[in-house]
Amino acid sequence: MVRPDDAPIGRDTPEPISDRHHVTGNAMMPPFPEHLHRTVLALGCYWGGERAFWDLPGIYTTAAGYAGGSTANPTYDEVVDGKTGHVEAVQVIYDPAQISFQELLAVFWQAHDPTQGDRQGIETGRQYHSVIFTNNAGEQAIAESSRDSYQRDLIEAGHGAAITTEIRAMAPFYHAADHEQQYLAKNPDGPNTLEPTGVAVQETRKQAADAAE
Question: Which residue in 45, 106, 131, 184 is the catalytic one?
Answer without folding.
Answer: 45
